[in-house]
Each structure stands twice: as C-alpha cells, then as structure tokens.
Amino acid sequence: MIYLDSAATTLQKPRAVHEAVLRAMRTMASPGRGGHSPARLAAETAYKCREAIARLFNVEKPENVVFTMNATHALNIALYSLISPGDRVVVSGYEHNAVTRPLNLLGADIDAVCTPLFDREAALEGFRKRIPGAAACVCTHVSNVFGFVLPVEEIAAVCREYSVPFVLDASQSAGALPVDAAALGASFIAMPGHKGLLGPQGTGVLICGAPATPVIAGGTGSDSLSQRMPAFLPDRLEAGTHNIPGVAGLLAGVEYIEKRGVEAIGRHERALISALAAGLEDVPGLEAFTDAGGGCQAGVLSVRSRDVGSEELGEALASLGVCVRAGLHCAPYAHRTAGTEAEGTVRLSVSPFNTYQEIRRVPALVERAAERAKA
C-alpha cells in the first residue's frame, strides 16, 4: 500500500504516538477530577502537551492552547466568538466547508477573494482591497485541495493595520510549515491534531489570541459553584471529559515534530510533491495542478484526467493499493475558484513517512489506474 491521503488524516504515525495512547488508557483518568495519581498524571500530560504546542507555535501562555475535537470544532469556536448575523467576513477562495458552513449558519456576508491558483501577489492584493471595514478575515494557510500556500503573514499584517480580527486555518500547515502565533497576531489559529501534528483522530487545537465564546457548556472540574462557564482559559472552552489518550498521543506527535524539525519536514514533503509532479507529466491525458515556480506549494497535489472521472480514477487507484482522495474534498470554494468544480480532482498528499521509492512508483500506477477505469 502507498498511502497518499495525509491531507485527510496521517495514517503513518511515530511509534511513540501509539505507545502514548495505550499508556494513557492504562494509567490516566481525567484531569481536574480528583487528587489521586491517575488524575494527576492526566493533568500533567495535558499541561505538557499545551507547553509543547505553545513552544512549536510561539504562544506566550500554554493556557491559551485549547484542546478541541478537531479543527472544525476549533473554527466554530473562533467564528462564533467573532461573527454576528450580517457581518462581512473576508475569506480566501480556497476555504474548506469548516469555515464557510459555520459562516453561513451565522448569517455572515461571505466576501470571498477568488484569485488564480498559485498567485500569491494576486491573493494579497485581493485581501488588501477587501479587508478594510470587514468584521473579520479568515484564511486557510494551505489549500487542502491544491497545496497552495497563501501569503498569510502578509494578510495578517494588513488585518493588524486595519484592526480587523484575523483567523488562521492551519489544518494543512501545522507541523509542516512555520506558524508563529506571536508574529501573526491572530485572534485565533485552528488546527487538527490528526494531520501534520501526527496525533490521533479526535484531537484538535485552538490557539486563542482574543476572548472566546464557548459553543459547548458543562463541567470543567473548576469553579463548579457557578452556573456559567469559567472566565479563564483553557477551562472556558473545554467542557466535559478530555480525550486524554488523544492528548497523550498528540503530545508524542508534537515531540516528534520538535525533534525532526518543521522546516525539515516541510522540505521533505515539498520535494516529494515536486518529484511526483515531474513523474506525472508523462502520464497520457493527465493534468496536474502544480506551482511552476516551485515556491508556494506544500505537500498536496491535485490531478484530473481528460479520459475518466476523478471518482473513477480514485477508485481504480485504491484497487491498486494507492490511497488517495477524489471529488470535491469538502472545499467547493476552492474547486470553483480553480475551475474544477464539475469533476473535482484526485488529491495526492504526503507525510513525513512517505519515501522517494514510493513516489517513483506512482506515475505508472496512475496510468494503469486510468486504463483500468476506462475499461
């Protein structure tokens, strides 16, 4: 099997992640729910994870690192904290449904900056024109469909200039690209634990740089006499029992990234995608969406065939042992912007554990899959 669906979930994890999850299930209870050893160990593990994430993303206070179920949960908290019905919210033309659906539910006026694929200057200019007077700006760091790295540092600077709250969706960049919370000055940064951070499913993170509104209320193990959620972080946003096995696994994933280095991981993934794109050039009838300049594409590559549909090609690849994702990838805005909405694309995405040996095999398998799908 060649696993190329890490933009959805990293399947290959550091061995320490699996071990940490099992150890937590055997030895840890719930933080803040007792003074006994299993509860204390859970609390210590949760705090160590917050500290590690704070180091990785340059967050001043570990308590501003909030655990969520996933990036979608984190983005919902961020958006419900900032947006009221009728507010104009500037977004990129590459946003995931995790951003656009909550905005629709909130009754926001979504102002999408739809600019050409892999054109960072056009994207920045579009944001520069739209940000003044907006209630908020939300931008994905990396398109989950095309791997396009948007100029989020510059966009964040424009938001600071006009005092517009900025929300970063780091779902495809956390762990593979530098994300500096202090430098960005973002109101919120949301990310999953199960993608680039190499943790288990059911984990996510919200980095809070602004006051936040809970979307779930309940017990926190703190300030229990009050019938309101605590005013302080992280308790304010963490109602209910924590996913401590997930948090323990997430800590192990973050520690692996700290040891290997975000820059090294990013270089590895970009080099794999570059090699893959070069190999796919010789596949008949295949169009690969790549950054010709090589400077603004992360570890994600989309392709489509003129001869077979994306879903059919994806299924044929699966039958040959190549794991990809086909279709619209929960990102209709991105496909509409790039002109691929009708058929979608086949997305190939890598992780730190993919190898050049795997990548060299893929073009021939894609060609074979296309022939199989046509038969």
Note down, in words, how this protein is organized.
The chain has 375 residues and is of the alpha/beta class. The protein has two domains: 2-10 and 262-374, Aspartate Aminotransferase, domain 1 (Alpha-Beta Complex), CATH 3.90.1150; 15-260, Type I PLP-dependent aspartate aminotransferase-like (Major domain) (Aspartate Aminotransferase, domain 2, 3-Layer(aba) Sandwich), CATH 3.40.640. Helix content is 41%, strand content 15%. It has twelve helices and 13 strands. A seven-stranded mixed sheet has the order 2-8-7-6-5-3-4, with helices on both faces. A four-stranded antiparallel sheet has the order 9-10-13-12, with helices on one face. Strands 1-11 form a two-stranded parallel ribbon. β3, α4 (97-105) and β4 form a beta-alpha-beta unit. α2 packs parallel to α8. The longest helix is centred in the first third of the chain and has 21 residues, at 37-57. The protein is globular, with a radius of gyration of 21 Å.
Question: What is the overall number of helices?
Answer: 12
The portion of residues forming beta strands comes to: 5-15%
Q: In what order do the strands lie side by side in the largest sheet?
A: 2-8-7-6-5-3-4
CATH-derived architecture of the largest domain: 3-Layer(aba) Sandwich
User: SSE order, as H and E?
Assistant: EHHEHEHEHEHEHEEHHEEHEEHEH
Question: How many DSSP E strands?
Answer: 13
Q: How many independent structural domains?
A: 2
CATH topology-level fold name of the largest domain: Aspartate Aminotransferase, domain 2
Chain-averaged pLDDT: 97
Q: Note the main sheet.
A: 7 strands, mixed
Shape: globular
**Low-confidence spans: pLDDT under 50, at least 5 residues?**
none
